[in-house]
Amino acid sequence: MHAEHRKIPYKIRSILLRGCLIALAMSLASAAPGAQPSSARVLADTSATDEARLAAASTLVRNATTENDVRAINSLLSRETDGTTRRILIDAIANAPLVVDGLDEPLIGLVGLGAPADRPATLRALGSTATQRAARVLVNHAAPFMPSEVSEAAFDSLIRMTGRADLGTDHDTWREWFDSVIDLEEPEWHRELLRGLRGHADTLNRDLDSAFLATTDIYKRHFRVVPFQDRDGLLAEMLRAGGALQQLGIELLYREIASNRQIGDAVGEAAIEILASHTTETRIEAARLLATLRPREAGTRLTRALEIETEPPAAKALLAACARWPRVAAVQPALRWLEFGSETRDEAAALLFALDAEGLLTSPADRRRVAAALRSAGPAKLTPDGLRLMVLTGNELDREAIASLIDDSDASTRGAAAAALAKRPEFAGRVINAATLDPTLYPAAVTAIASHRPTPQGYAMLRQIQPPTPVAANTGLLAVARSMTLPDLLEAAETHESDPEMRVAILSTVGTAAASPAERELINRTKLLLAETQLELEHPEPALASLAQVVSSDDATTSRVTELRVTSLLWLNRIEEASALETGAETWLRAIDRFADEPHAPQIANATLARFEGVLQQEERERLSAIVQIAESGTDSEQTGG
Asked: Which residues contact 103 (CB under 8 A, 6 or more apart)?
């Protein structure tokens, strides 16, 4: 399987090359400048490499447009020219998709009078002339009595010139075809060639589609069985292949990502490479892949790609990806695409907002350009990032224009405007008031209160606003709690938070480190309130953990900690530990009241009777005895089946 999947791309490249040659032959190239003397000098320089001389010859042939150019090339094709120079020039003509008129005659002369060893190459060069005279010579040299290398070259050249691959290598068929077109005028002759080339191009396209389907199928099957450690290399190969194979690679790659498989560096490197693709769609996919894979050097390469990008669709993807790696070099291209228009404005605004958050958008001139571009679009057409950016870079009138959107009929517009203004103190009240009427503005109200009113009154205010979901409520109240000072948080918990679960949540945000005795006292109060609330929720184990964080500073605190600890221990049926703590009977009695329905309550009641027999009031002894008797009667009923 591995060998098979290696062969297929080679076939594809061969078909692609043939297709490109035919497509070029069908195109009418615009006139190029005349042949450059420097190319002729390089071609004639025997000390130059064959590669350099062939490149010079190709330039000479490609740029030949005038009669003087044709005469110069014809002179180089004469038999007086040294054999190497002539052979290189013939190869250059053979490689050209179509050459200027007038080069067929010297080539025809070389076919008849040149060295026999050069004849196949000369016949192949004739295919680039596309003249009837050349076609006649090629048909004659495709005859069965010719040496095989000569007839093969003639057939190849005929197919390349005419596109008539359907005629194959049958000389009689080619002779019949040529006899049918020999009397055509030049325009009709060229139309005949064009029809053949178009037909051949269609065939090649079908072959190419079939080859791609076969290739993608082979790769898909191979990917299923290849070891995991080899998949990255295969994915990288597909990404670089382009076309349908590249799309398959992208599809398989996203499946791997969805399966939480670690993607190696080879895939990221391939994605970086295809950023330079001439195809817009490929650059878009590369940017999206890099934003997902986040390989090393991705930020630098994406920024460079953004600097030279000219196509808006690709710029959108690059702008979005660059926002993950804000770099100062991205400021100017981001400004350019912000000013380009609506097609790229949103992504450019998001990148510029990220740049500003990193402290990279510092130039007053650049900030004025940002504000002007956003102002030109109008706040109603901006995304949340665009609105935030306008708040940061614009003036009071811009911010007031955004504030007017809080009353807009569209919920998303209201939310974006409120979120953009929530951190501005002058708009905090307006945002909070709007949120009392619109639950969708709850997150903006949270930001406004946490930023500008982190007080017990602000907490109470948020408590009065309807949250969109219970999760949003918990998140918002915790955000405000974290922004409050310790005294304010304690007051909010004691005074304004009636939900014990929420009270536990906000009190749990307080640490244990104290900078002063006064702060230590506040922390002790917080931990005591937390333990009391946890017992209210019937959570004695966490209550013990909270009490362990109290650093006793006075007798009242120590007494309260001991009382709550005994309650928690008895609730957990840890009688021996509770007995080791010095507390009165009333503490044990209050503890039993909390968990009188628990299975171990009778045990605690007996232990209380035994421990405090001499100090208990008659009423208290009777209550404890009743708890024990109820438990014993229940046990007797179970034993008798009653």
From this structure: 64, 70, 73, 74, 77, 93, 128, 129
Q: Which residues of 197-222 are buried (b: 16+ CB within 10 A; e: fewer)?
A: beebbeebeeebeebbeebbebbeee
Q: Minimal CA–CA distance to 284: which of 316, 308, 259, 249? A: 316
Phi/psi of residue 457, each to 5°? -70, -40
Task: Provide the token pair at 408.
Answer: 């807009």
Residues 6+ apart with CB under 8 A from 287: 275, 302, 305, 314, 317, 318, 320, 321
Q: Residue 371 pLDDT > 90, yes or no?
A: yes
Torsion angles phi and psi, residue 538, rounded to 5: 65, 45
- What are 518-566's pLDDT values in tens digits? 999 999 999 999 999 999 999 999 999 999 999 977 889 999 999 999 9
**Whole-angstrom Cα distance, residue 266 to residue 288?**
16
Percent of the chain with pLDDT over 70: 91
Q: Indicate the pLDDT class of residue 204, thresholds 50, 70 and 90.
A: confident
Instruction: Write out the two tokens for 567.
Output: 């309650």
Q: How far is residue 369's CA from residue 347's CA, in Å, rounded to a whole number? A: 16
- What global pTM score does this model have? 0.63
Residue 274 clears pLDDT 60, i.e. is over it:
yes
DSSP 516: S
Q: Read off the tokens for 458.
A: 């602000």
Neighbour tally for 288: CB within 10 Å? 17
362, amino acid identity: T
Band of residue 222 on the pLDDT scale cut at 50, 70, 90: confident
CA angle, corner 312, sides to 311 and 313, nearest 5? 95
Chain centre to alpha carbon of residue 45: 53
> Which one, of 358, 369, 381, 221, lies nearest residue 299 by Cα?
358
How far is 214 from 220, CA to CA, in rounded Å? 10
